[in-house]
Design brief:
With 239 residues, the protein is α/β, with parallel strands linked by helices. It has one domain: Bifunctional carbon monoxide dehydrogenase/acetyl-coa synthase(codh/acs), Chain M, domain 3 (2-Layer Sandwich), CATH 3.30.1650. The protein contains 8 helices and 8 strands. The protein has a 5-stranded mixed β-sheet with strand order 1-4-8-5-3, with helices on both faces. The structure holds iron/sulfur cluster. Iron/sulfur cluster binds next to helix 6, helix 7 and helix 8.
Length: 239
């Protein structure tokens, strides 16, 4: 699965302008999670991530190219305890998977991709209320003052995400990146739409849509992203 590799490289290239703080998953205790989303009143919350019109973005990329070779959490910008006012926010996840062998077992690939998408929106760290807009790929987070007092930070929240992702057997490594530096969030924000277009096209292909490129609304995406046509039409037909 190399469909997202150019976006991962673009993201890492843009983030290289910042200073990362890296945390190994093995050394982190994941923040405790709830079964479902929790409502946190504004009066009980600290500053919001991605709130008050600050830029925010969330996207997830899958790869088999070794672009996520460790389970780790990386933070660019201020960590939760240091944030004193509403701030820009990005959460990027890079998933290293085993070879999904798309053409041989499409149903398994399809199910794995569905499971990954499910986790994206179904981790509920305690005292950390996530509001997502799937249409605009924005993510806002309200953090309870009580959680801040208890020491919530990105390394522990990221570890909670990794723990959940690792329940999917096809996932080998997970890299969760949090960004609170406005300039960096703005630099990577545009990638979300491209990721979305690839994921939607991939889902349609695996769903068994007809192979008629001349009448297909996904053509602009397939023309741009290496590997999508091969996946749908087979190697020879795509040439
Ligand atoms: S390969 Fe052709 S038919 Fe298949 S999704 Fe891409 S453009 Fe559409």
């Amino acid at each position: 699965m190399k469909l997202y590799d150019s976006i991962i490289e673009e993201t890492l290239g843009a983030l290289a302008k910042g200073t990362p703080k890296c945390f190994s998953y093995e050394k982190e205790k994941p923040w405790s999670c709830l079964e479902n989303t929790e409502f946190i009143m504004q009066r009980d919350a600290g500053p919001e991530l991605g709130g008050s019109g600050e830029p925010s973005v969330n996207y997830t990329c899958v790869t088999t190219s070794g672009l996520a070779n460790e389970d780790e959490i990386i933070v660019y910008g201020q960590d939760i305890p240091e944030i004193k006012k509403d701030t820009a926010f990005a959460r990027i996840v890079i998933l290293e998977t085993c070879d999904l062998k798309e053409s041989e077992d499409q149903e398994k690939t399809f199910q794995t991709i569905r499971n990954m998408e499910f986790v994206r929106y179904h981790v509920f760290p305690e005292g950390y209320m996530v509001r997502v807009s799937a249409s605009s790929n924005q993510e806002q987070v309200r953090i309870a003052k009580s959680a801040i007092k208890k020491g919530i930070c990105f390394s522990k929240v990221g570890a909670a995400y990794i723990k959940k992702y690792k329940e999917i057997p096809e996932i080998k490594k997970v890299r969760v990146i949090f960004v609170t530096e406005k300039e960096l969030v703005n630099a990577i924000k545009g990638n979300a739409e491209k990721v979305d277009a690839i994921t939607k096209t991939l889902t349609h292909i695996l769903d068994g849509m007809p192979t008629d490129c001349g009448h297909c609304s996904m053509k602009p995406v397939c023309d741009e992203v290496d590997g999508l046509k091969e996946l749908h039409l087979g190697k020879k037909a795509a040439k």
